[in-house]
Amino acid sequence: MHMSKLCLALVGLMSVCLASCSSGGPSQSEREHAFLLFVQDNSNEKARIEDFESNQCTKAEGAPSYTCDVSAKVRAMDRDFGNQMDGVYSFTKMGGIWKITGRAQ
Fold first, then answer.
1. Dihedral sign (CA 42, 65, 55, 29)
2. Do 29 and 91 form a contact (C-beta atoms < 8 A)?
3. 20 to 30 A Cα–Cα from 93, which one of 9, 23, 35, 45?
């Protein structure tokens, strides 16, 4: 009897953890895709990014978005911009796709 209560408690805890993880912000690959689209929309379709990193996201208060740090080397309009676009960006899910909707810093 004691073991079944323990199993039930563990299953419940795992369910809560999985639900909280799956309902969070954009994944690393979703952030990279959103950043690439953002760069292309603000330069040209030939823009490329390299060495993309984004480690931390925070849920924005009172908004359906997340602020996430971003670092990447950008090449656009036949120029190498290096890491000039590094910063903290707002990511919002629109039409089922994560998009950058602003730059926080």
1. negative
2. no
3. 45
Measured in degrees and rounded to the nearest 5, phi and psi for residue 76 equal -150, 155
Output the CA angle 51-54-60, nearest 5 degrees.
Answer: 155
Q: Is residue 12 part of a domain?
A: no
Q: State which residues form the domain around 63.
A: 26-103
Q: Model confidence over 9-68: pLDDT tens digits?
A: 444 444 333 333 445 899 999 999 999 999 999 998 889 999 999 999 999 998 899 999
Kindly report each contact of residues 10-17 with a partner whose C-beta sits within 8 Å and lies 24 or more positions away, as own/partner.
none
- Tokens for 19, please give them: 């639900």
* pLDDT at position 23: 54
- Across 88-92, average pLDDT: 97
User: 89: how many CB neighbours lie within 10 A of its CB?
Assistant: 25
Look at residue 75 and tell me if it is in a domain. Answer: yes
Question: 40: which 2 tokens?
Answer: 């292309």
